[in-house]
Amino acid sequence: MKKTLIGCSVALGLFAAFSCSSPDKQEQGTEKTVHVDIPFLQEVSVKYYFEEPSVNLEKVFMDRNGTLQVLSDQGLLRPHDGQFLYPGTMVNDRTYLPMKDKNLKDMGIFQDQFVYLDDKAVLSNAWAGAVYVPHGLPNAKHFKAGKDFSFLVSDGSQVAYLADPSLVWKGNIPSGRVLDLTYDTANDRFFILTSEKIYSYQIGADNVKEGFAGSGFTSFALVEEGKNLIVGTNDGYFTVSVSTQQQVGDRQNKLPWPVLTTVAEIHGNLWFGSEKGAFMKKDDGKYNYYFGERWLPGDIVKHLAPGKDNDVLILTDKGLSKLEFFEHTLQQKAEFFDKQVRERHIRYGFNSSLVGMEKGNINTGRLGDSDNDGLWTSMYLGGEAFRYAVTGEAEALQNIRESMDAMERLYTINPVEGFPSRSFARRGYIDQLSDPDRWQHASHPEWDWKATTSSDEAIGHIFVFGVVAELVEDKELKDQAVRLIDALMQHIVDNDWYLIDYDGKPTLWGKWHPDYVNNFPRMVGDRKLNSSNIVAMLQTAYHFTQKEIYKTKAFELMEDHGYLENMMVPMEQIGKAEEGTDEWAEMLSESWNHSDDEMYFLGYWGLYRYAFNDTLKAKYKESIIDHWESERPEKEGLWNIFTALVTPDNFDREEAIWYLQEYPMDLVNWSVSNSHRKDIELLEQNFRRQTTAEVLAPDELPIRRHNANRFGLDAGGMGRSESSAGDIWLLPYWMGRYLGVISGPEITD
Question: How many CB atoms are located within 10 Å of the residue 143 CB?
Fold first, then answer.
């Protein structure tokens, strides 16, 4: 949710202020297509929970010293502890002993110092405590500072102007209850908001003047250096000219949520609080939306205020959020995510999720097993191999060794030659692992392994073994990768295009035989997918082993069984099976399968890069671009980067960078909701499961791997797990670095 996408592409004569260094080792992009990695604005949320339902949180402010205070209906609070990913709490503020006995009703900032309103006076502990101005309104609820220590106070029906320091004038509001006050510095006057009218009090006058009238007003703020008032309502907001007291433009109610609770101009940006989160208006008229516990302790926003530097304070019904905005590069983000993976997402060398967490507490989780331990590890391992090819870092090489050992053990822990297990785990815990019925005992008494391996595991393995064999300049690792490629592919060839499990039967998904593949109608995606994957796998095996059997078998499938023709079926022709087709085909074609996309693109590395000849390579390129064209609405970072492999001048570079920059740094699987939003265009149900006309930013969506639908709007994670950045983010970033479409970090002069 960036204010501005800060970045550039290297182009002749442009961005001369930047020192564009030569590409890192093995980076291959042309000047024309490289994203220059200069700092961009990233945000994270530091949350402070306060779960006492009987206490109503009202306002938050920060003074010139950086001290934060929260006003509640039972006194002052302050945040305690708290940092990104490690939430704090709010505790009673005991800084000034007498404040606990003050019947505080409102709070504000004047000259960057805290000022308070109680039932007797306006007061402050700044200025040596000299500010104490009695107001004569026992039921006072609101106040606002003017100039020279003058104040306007209201009890809801009356207003009192205080100066020098005494009561100067008191009067009644003609109708309605006062909701808020603000001060117009340029014209030395106050504005007074009720639910139906905006009044003004001009200093020196003996009455209030009625201004704009309407209904449903909830909040307001002076903006644009006092030129306009933004008025929040229970159905959006509108602008009122301060000079004419007339509405400017139309009411804006196509918002993330239109029932507004507070409005503020903060650091030059217009912010809104609502009953369902907070949002900031961007330069293009759209909104950055902050909703759910990734960003906020509670749903209902009570108050907004500026924090230190670019920070924004958001007070909710259940606590405070401090949105911290800071500049960093993609490289720095990669370093953060690398630490995230290594510290808490490596299980026996696998790239794993942290599960069983308590409400986002990463210290309460455990490393979880998965059906796809091999696949997720292949994707993380691929990123590390690209990283090593670019940087030559010893740390990356060691990461590769550890994960390659885990991958090899998938083959050796079970009794079936060349068969990759899904996962392995220490014995005695099968009933606590996922899919207990799929686990088998290994010959070693300490270990169990998981059977039923699927085709997505197989293509992931071949993808990364090819990457390691080609790019990692380490003979032991190269030999290990080639050995594993050969083992898996020999198993598939020897078993007539099937993965054969411990029971001697094909696994449910490990099938590439023509009788299986060509049994699907032309429009069912599995026919095209399985053809594409097996040819990619055979090409990779031939490229690194030079065994003719792999080349011969590949051409046999393409020429005698139509696999090349299957691969060339345009994506626009993929759809639901016709009525009367077998139930399996109908089930597989009910809607677009995003796991298939992941399998296709992982396979494209070996399909295109290790093509048998230029004629086939041209056909593969055509097929890959056709697929990418259908995926472009998702703005999926990895698919765009993969496409740079075949067309480096046209792969939606800006969207790829947008994905990497916008992905949240908090990868906890919080509950996320967007389907209620009024600022999105919902689409009718469709085959591709595209829910909205335009995909939302990654940091507004649930955390999802690349095999998920990026148009899915809601999820109920509840903070019970944390995903690894290894496959989600590090793979597209480091692949982009290797392909030369993302530069190393650049420093301005």
Answer: 25
Look at residue 10 and tell me whether its pLDDT is greater than 80. Answer: no
- What are residue 312's phi and psi, to 5 degrees? -130, 130
How far is the C-alpha of 686 from the C-alpha of 614, rounded, in Å? 37
CA torsion sign for 115, 116, 122, 126 is negative
Measure the CA–CA gap between 391 and 387, rounded to whole angstroms: 6
Question: How far is it, in rounded angstroms, from Cα 617 to Cα 637?
Answer: 23
Q: How far apart are CA 664 and CA 672, in angstroms?
A: 13
Give the Cα separation of 31 and 740 in Å (integer). 9
Give the chain's radius of gyration (CA, Å).
Answer: 31
Contact, 464 vs 385, CB < 8 A?
yes
Tokens representing residue 449 in the block: 């392994």
Q: Which residues contact 545 (CB under 8 A, 6 or more apart)?
A: 482, 485, 486
Q: Tens of pLDDT along 455-484?
A: 999 999 999 999 999 999 999 999 999 999
- Helix 548-555 with 475-494: angle, nearest 10 deg: 50
Count Cβ atoms below 10 Å from residue 547 Cβ, excluding itself.
Answer: 15
- Name residue 391's amino acid: T
Note whether 710 and 632 are within 8 A (CB). Answer: no
What was the pLDDT predicted at 13?
29
Reference 296, options 344, 261, 329, 245; nearest CA is: 261
- Containing 543, the helix (H) or strand (E) segment is helix 525-545
| Cβ atoms of 107 and 59 closer than 8 Å | yes
Nearest to 563 by CA among 628, 619, 647: 619
- Collapsed DSSP state (helix, strand, coil) of residue 443: coil
* CA separation for the pair 32, 13 (Å, rounded): 11
- 3-state DSSP percent of the chain in helix, strand and coil, to 5: 30, 30, 40
- Single-letter code of the amino acid located at 364: T
The pair of structure tokens assigned to 433 is: 């692992």
The predicted pLDDT at position 748 comes to 56
Segment 569-586 shows an average pLDDT of 95
Q: Strand 742-745 to strand 35-37: parallel, antiparallel, or no bridges (unpaired)? A: parallel
Q: Are strands 88-92 and 104-110 parallel, antiparallel or unpaired?
A: unpaired
User: Strand, helix or coil at 564?
Assistant: helix
Alpha helices in 413-524 (DSSP H): 455-471, 475-494, 514-517
Q: Cα–Cα distance between 682 and 628 in angstroms, integer?
A: 23
The widest CA-to-CA distance across the chain, in whole angstroms, is 99
Task: Report the amino acid identity of residue 519.
Answer: N
- Minimal CA–CA distance to 700: which of 262, 5, 43? 43
CA 258, 261, 264, 269 torsion: positive or negative?
Answer: negative
Burial 636-666 (b: 16+ CB within 10 A, else e): bbbbbbbbbbbebeebbbebbbbbbbbbbbb
Share of the chain above pLDDT 90, in %: 94
DSSP 691: -
Q: How far apart (Å, rounded) are the C-alpha atoms in residues 515 and 2?
A: 51
586-619 burial code (b ≥16 CB/10 A, e <16): bebbeebbbbbbbbbbbbbbbbbbbbbeeebbeb
Tokens of 336: 């953060």
Q: What is the 3-state secondary structure (H, E, C) of 386-450?
A: HHHHHHCCHHHHHHHHHHHHHHHHHHHCCCCCCCCCCEEEECCCHHHCCCHHHEEECCCCCEEEE
The structure tokens listed for 687 are: 């085959």
The phi and psi torsions of 542 (rounded to 5 degrees) equal: -65, -40
Place 747 in a pLDDT band, splitting at 50, 70 and 90.
Answer: low
List helix spans (H) across 45-156.
none
Quick check: helix, strand or coil at residue 598? Answer: helix
CA dist., res. 624 & res. 642, Å (int): 9
Could you tell me if 49 and 70 are in contact, meaning their C-beta atoms sit under 8 angstroms apart?
no
Task: Count the alpha carbons within 13 Å of 46 in the hemisphere toward its beta carbon.
Answer: 16
For the segment 693-722, what is each residue's pLDDT rounded down to a tens digit? 999 999 999 999 999 999 999 999 999 999
> For residue 90, what are the CA distances in angstroms to 52, 188, 307, 360, 369?
10, 37, 17, 18, 36
